[in-house]
Design brief:
22 helices; single chain; Growth Hormone, Chain: A; mainly alpha
Length: 385
C-alpha cells in the first residue's frame, strides 16, 4: 500500500482523506477473533484468515472503483486481525519455554520480510501503466495467502486448545512430537491441564475460556493487584508499540523521502527497499538473544534507539522545510535516521510486544488477553494515520 497509495490517488482521483481511510482500514479489529479462535482452534482460525486475505487481495487487485477497493481492504483487515493475534499465541503455546523467545519472535521477522517484498513489488510494478501498476501491487498479495492456508493444513493444533476442549490424547500426541523427551511432554501436559482447569493442581488461577466477556469479568468490578499489573503491562505495551508511529512510518516512507527532497527516478523506491531490508535484518537479532539476555534489555535498547532516531528525523525534516537550498547533510540524516528507527523497532518493540503479551497473561486468559491488547494495538495504529 505504501507505493500503491500515490498511484491510486492519481488513477481514481480520490482525496487525501480517502487515501488515509484506505490505508487505515487495514488496522481494523475483529471483535469476534477471540471467540472464533476458542471455538474452532488456532489452526482453523489461520486457515480462515487466509481466506479473508485471498478474497480481500483479489478484490483490491480487480477493483474498478474506490468503493470496491475499500471493501477489499476491509475484508483483508479481518485476515490481519486474525493473524496478528493468533500467530503469536500459536507460537507461544506450541513452543517449549526454553526456546519460546526464539520461536515466538519469528512472526515479526516474516512480517518484515513481507514489508520488504511489498517495497520490492512497488519498485517493479511502478514501471507499468498507472491503472495496472497499483492493482498488481495489491493483487499479488493473494499468492502468499494460498501458501499460508496450505501450510497450516500440515501443522498440528495448539496443545493447549486441545486440552481446553478435553482432547487430552490428541494434545499428548502433539506434545510428544514437539518435545525433546517423553518426560518433557508429560510435564507440559500436566501444566496445560492445570491452566485449563482439568488438572489435579488447585493453586492455578482458573477462568472459563468460552465466551467473549470472561476477560472483562476478571477485570471488573474488583480486579486483583496481580491482574491489574498484567492488564497495564500487556495493554500498555501494545499501545506504545503503535503510538511510536511505526505503521505510519512504514506505509508513508515514500512520502517521508519525498519531503526530504528525494524524488528522482528509482532513487526513492530503492532507498525505501533498503529501509525494508534493514528492518528485516535487525529483526533476526532478538531471535538469538531473547532467551539468553532477556526481554527487558532488548526493549530498553529498542525504545532508546527509536527516541533518538525520531528526534533526529524531525530535526532533519524541519531543516529541509525551512531552507531553500535543501542541504545534503539533512537529506542524508533523514535517510539514516529512518533506517535506524525501523532497526531499533525490529530489535525490541516489534517482536517482544507479541511475545510479552502471551507470556504475561494467564494461560486461561491467553486469547482474551491477546484480544484486548490487539484491540488497543489496532485502534492506536489506525489513529496514527
Amino acid at each position: 500500500m505504501s507505493g500503491a497509495a500515490t498511484l491510486i490517488k492519481h488513477d481514481l482521483k480520490i482525496t487525501p482523506w480517502q487515501v488515509a481511510a484506505l490505508v487505515a482500514t487495514a488496522s481494523g479489529f475483529n471483535p469476534f477473533t477471540s471467540y472464533v479462535s476458542n471455538q474452532i482452534g488456532r489452526r482453523h482460525t489461520m486457515i480462515l484468515a487466509s481466506a479473508f486475505f485471498l478474497v480481500g487481495q483479489l478484490l483490491m487487485g480487480l477493483a474498478p472503483y474506490y468503493s470496491t477497493l475499500l471493501s477489499g481492504r476491509l475484508i483483508a483487515s479481518f485476515g490481519v486481525s486474525f493473524t496478528f493475534m493468533i500467530v503469536p499465541i500459536y507460537a507461544a503455546e506450541i513452543s517449549p519455554a526454553s526456546s519460546r523467545g526464539f520461536l515466538a519472535s519469528f512472526p515479526e521477522f516474516f512480517i518484515n520480510v513481507g514489508v520488504t517484498l511489498g517495497y520490492a513489488s512497488n519498485m517493479v510494478f511502478s514501471k507499468l501503466p498507472l491503472h495496472l501498476g497499483w492493482r498488481l501491487m495489491l493483487g499479488v498479495g493473494a499468492i502468499p495467502s494460498v501458501f499460508l492456508a496450505v501450510g497450516f493444513l500440515f501443522l498440528p493444533e495448539s496443545p493447549y486448545w486441545l486440552v481446553m476442549k478435553n482432547r487430552d490424547d490428541e494434545a499428548r500426541q502433539v506434545l510428544r512430537n514437539i518435545s525433546a523427551s517423553e518426560a518433557e511432554a508429560a510435564s507440559r501436559l500436566v501444566d496445560l491441564q492445570a491452566a485449563a482447569g482439568n488438572g489435579p493442581r488447585n493453586d492455578v488461577v482458573q477462568v472459563p475460556t468460552s465466551g467473549c466477556c470472561n476477560l472483562l469479568k476478571e477485570f471488573i468490578p474488583r480486579p486483583t493487584r496481580s491482574v491489574c499489573h498484567i492488564f497495564i503491562a500487556a495493554v500498555g505495551l501494545n499501545f506504545f508499540q503503535q503510538a511510536t508511529g511505526i505503521d505510519a512510518v512504514v506505509l508513508y516512507a515514500p512520502r517521508i523521502l519525498k519531503k526530504a527532497g528525494i524524488k528522482k527516478g528509482l532513487r526513492k523506491p530503492i532507498i525505501t527497499l533498503v529501509v525494508g531490508v534493514v528492518k528485516t535484518v535487525f529483526s533476526v537479532f532478538p531471535a538469538f538473544g531473547l532467551d539468553r539476555i532477556g526481554r527487558r534489555s532488548f526493549l530498553l535498547a529498542s525504545i532508546g534507539g527509536m527516541f533518538v532516531s525520531l528526534v533526529s528525523l524531525g530535526l532533519g525534516l524541519t531543516m529541509l522545510d525551512r531552507t531553500a537550498d535543501r542541504p545534503v547533510w539533512a537529506q542524508v540524516l533523514c535517510m539514516i535516521t529512518l533506517a535506524v528507527y525501523v532497526a531499533s523497532y525490529s530489535i525490541g518493540m516489534g517482536p517482544i510486544t507479541w511475545l510479552y503479551t502471551t507470556e504475561i497473561v494467564l494461560y486461561s486468559l491467553h486469547v482474551q488477553g491477546a484480544g484486548m491488547g490487539m484491540l488497543v494495538n489496532r485502534v492506536t495504529s489506525g489513529s496514527s494515520y
